[in-house]
Specification:
14 strands, alpha/beta, about 350 residues, six-stranded parallel beta sheet
């Protein structure tokens, strides 16, 4: 938690410097003043200043303070490549939302985006050649890319690149959701409403992101000494949930379920309707994404929203940071926002 707070303060001060909040010819405020302004401790400020010095964004004058270093005006985000894995239409609202965020941030930076929607394989060697010619400054790949098998040529050539909305367990620079926190938020919300017998409508649990969501959910329940029973984890079988009916008809069924994606919540609603089980009177449900079921808002589904446009925007900012400072930044994790509607009954 402390490290996350330090990174947050670092991002704020770096952003304020780049935005011109502090005069380049004057000293930065003192450690005490910075600590008060950014609502943190002086130890955190010292760590942040050290990091900014390593990034060559500031320099220190002994016994006097810190000043902003000369930033090369010619180094800015001007043109980058955006590559989709597969067909953009297959990603639906999620993909289009991320694309919107990328394009909006590019426009704000007066940068040009070179997009590839083709299914034709574009070899990394070709992208490396375009980078070497100065045709592009870096690359953003939209989810589903495996760094271990795809990007060795880019890394050898030192090409800045990242993966937006990465859902794999990969060490590449990326902008992604904090999957564990999604599960934790869902678990804490249900327990706050008095639910103690809770089930899960899972995604494929051989998939990294669903493993992480489940781990976060288990951890949240464990804080209240609640155990998630194996029979209450409903896994998909060929895209269907045949065990869901069994769980809903059980004599001691869960009082609430967490669905890992709104389109799975839709199947939950359909099954409950067919069985005459009322939501939320008889059973509650919370979900995640707020994008994969168009009727979710109308039906009253409480869900954790995936900020798709923010993912796109943050991806561009990460690439910009790498290009401007010449050093690879740390990956960025985003948090889901609770959209509270009417599908969870308070039984406390």
């Amino acid at each position: 938690m402390a490290r996350s707070h330090t990174v947050s303060v670092l991002d704020k001060i770096r952003g304020d410097i780049l935005a011109g909040k502090y005069c380049q010819v004057e000293f930065l405020p003192s450690e005490r003043q910075l600590a008060e302004f950014y609502d943190t401790g002086r130890g955190v400020i010292r760590t942040v200043l050290r990091k900014l010095r390593e990034e060559n964004l500031i320099y220190l004058i002994p016994d006097r303070g810190a000043k902003i270093a000369d930033i090369e005006k010619k180094r800015s985000l001007e043109r980058f490549f955006l590559r989709f894995s597969g067909n953009i239409t297959s990603k639906g609202t999620e993909g289009m939302g991320i694309l919107t965020g990328i394009c909006a941030s590019a426009a704000e930076n007066n940068a040009e985006v070179v997009m590839s929607f083709s299914d034709k394989k574009l070899f990394m060697s070709e992208l490396t050649a375009r980078y070497a010619k100065g045709d592009i400054q870096g690359l953003i790949f939209l989810e589903g890319w495996d760094r271990a098998t795809m990007f060795s040529a880019l890394e050898t050539a030192g090409v800045p690149y990242l993966i937006a909305n990465q859902e794999l367990n990969d060490s590449a620079l990326c902008c992604q959701m904090d999957f564990r926190n999604i599960g934790r938020q869902a678990g804490r919300y249900l327990t706050s409403k008095g639910h103690r017998h809770i089930g899960v409508i899972a995604g494929p649990l051989d998939n990294y992101l669903y493993q992480e969501i489940l781990a976060g959910f288990r951890g949240a329940l464990a804080e209240d000494e609640i155990t998630l029973a194996k029979n209450d984890i409903i896994e998909p079988q060929n895209g269907q949930y045949p065990d869901l009916k069994r769980a809903l008809l059980a004599s001691e069924r869960p009082t609430a379920f967490f669905a890992m994606r709104d389109h799975r919540a839709m199947k939950f609603y359909d099954t409950c309707r067919n069985l005459g089980v009322r939501i939320p009177e008889d059973i509650s449900v919370i979900s995640y994404d707020n994008i994969t079921w168009p009727d979710a808002e109308h039906i009253g589904l409480t869900t954790l929203e995936q900020p798709v446009e923010d993912i796109g925007r943050e991806a561009v900012e990460l690439l910009k940071e790498w290009i401007i400072f010449g050093t690879k930044p740390e990956s960025k994790k985003l948090y889901a926002k609770l959209i509270e509607r009417s599908s969870v009954k308070d039984i406390s």
